[in-house]
Amino acid sequence: MKILGIETSCDETGAAILEDDTILSNVVSSQVEVHSEYGGVVPELASREHIKNIDYVIEEALEKSECGLDELELIAVTQGPGLIGSLLVGLNYAKTLAYALDLPLLPVNHVKAHLESVFLSGSKIKLPAVNMVISGGHTHIFYQEERLNYRLVGCTRDDAAGEAFDKVAKLLGLGYPGGPVIEKISKEGDETAIDFPISTMSDGSFDLSFSGLKTAVLRYVRNEDIEPCEGKKDQKPYTDIAASFQKTIVEDLLQKCKRVCRSYRPYSICITGGVSINSRLRERFRDFARQKKMEVHFPEPDLTTDNAAMIAYYGFLAKEEAKPPDLRLNAISTLDLNQEQKR
Ligand code: KG4
Ligand code: ZN
Questions:
Q1: CA 134 to CA 124: how far, in whole Å?
Q2: 97 lines ligand 1 (CB under 6 A)
């Protein structure tokens, strides 16, 4: 079955063609340059960029996979959560195409697509697993008993982990997105230089919070009179701040994961989403899994950040739920947690 996946939830315009669970093409047009001067995604600019790019991205995905429109059997599209204007560009495109080609359409939850992206790399993963989505928009911990079945056990109460990377990078004048540059300059820094706080929840829940860490970095920068780096990012104090911040956020994520593992006793740990490419994070989670004789899995690098291959893959997994396109099908900007718990 040939499936077209479309992803426009934030600042990446993505289209992919899968033949069942095999990726034939996976095209992403990134808007990083458009948003970088603002230090974060500007929603209106993101929607406009999607409108400009979507035809070309879909055309390229079809060309690279040597797949004709007449060969498609299903269209899967991100319905939410995400930026409403951005989501509508992809969703309306998918609805129109499905009408015109008389194809079934599957609206996909972006967070669930991240959760399943780890299985797309072909690795055999022993379930149940603790599956964490750690991205710019989400930091959610799920207990996954079987495929397509997740229970939310904890989530951030404020910023997502990737958002914290982006905001700290903005504060230090390192550019956008923050994750890759913080990871890079951390290699030159001393991660024990500054003691930043790890969040604890007084109610004993598995929730996370990164606003305290973000404020601690801000306070440190103000107290020490540190100016934005202006091209000196490879030097102290930026490298030390980056390394200490990265260590703290990774340890925070790992501590929560350890607590969830103690309660739920899964076979495996899966980490997905844009932050899951971070090498320090991968190393620390691998160490923990080795000690506990558990498996740990991450998606292939190009499946960590937003992409349409994971959307098409979710379409393949849930193809029975696809329906003829419904005019009333609308985008959903927030993650409906109650819905998540029911599934
Ligand atoms: O999954 P994604 O593309 O978008 C959302 O669904 O939100 O994740 C983007 C996030 C950004 O916040 C970016 O700073 C972060 O992933 N990121 C990283 C790294 N590469 C990207 N965070 C830490 N280390 C990295 N190497
Ligand atoms: Zn995402």
A1: 21
A2: no
Element containing residue 50 per DSSP (H, E): helix 43-65
Using CA atoms, how far apart are residues 228 and 265, in angstroms rounded to an integer? 44
CA distance 86 to 220: 36
Phi (first) and psi of residue 237, to 5 degrees:
-85, -5
Residue with tokens 């056990």: 153
Whether the model pTM is above 0.90: yes
Atom of ligand 1 nearest to the CA of 12: 3
Q: If pLDDT is split at 50, 70 and 90, which confidence band does 116 have?
A: very high
DSSP 302: G
Atom of ligand 1 nearest to the CA of 180: 26
Ligand located closest to 12 CA = 1
Ligand 1: nearest atom to the Cα of 110: 6
Distance, in Å, from the CA atom of 212 to the CA atom of 215, rounded to the nearest integer, reads 5
Q: Which of 5, 279, 245, 247 is nearest to 117 (CA)?
A: 5
> What is the Cα 192 distance to its own chain's centre?
28
Q: 323: CA distance to ligand 1 center in Å?
A: 32
Tens of pLDDT, residue by residue over 289-338, are: 999 999 999 999 999 999 999 999 999 999 999 999 999 999 998 876 44
Residues contacting 336, CB < 8 A, separation 6+: none
- Residue 136 CA to ligand 1 centre (angstroms): 5
Tell me: pLDDT of 343 over 70.
no
**pLDDT tens digits, residue range 125-134?**
999 999 999 9
Does a cis peptide bond (omega within 30 degrees of 0) precede residue 81?
Answer: yes
Question: Which is more confident, 174 or 40?
Answer: 174
Dihedral of the alpha carbons of 183, 184, 189, 191, in degrees to the nearest 10: 10
Name the residue of 12, 159, 271, 275 whose CB sits within 8 Å of the most ligand 1 atoms, as the mutation to test its pocket. 275
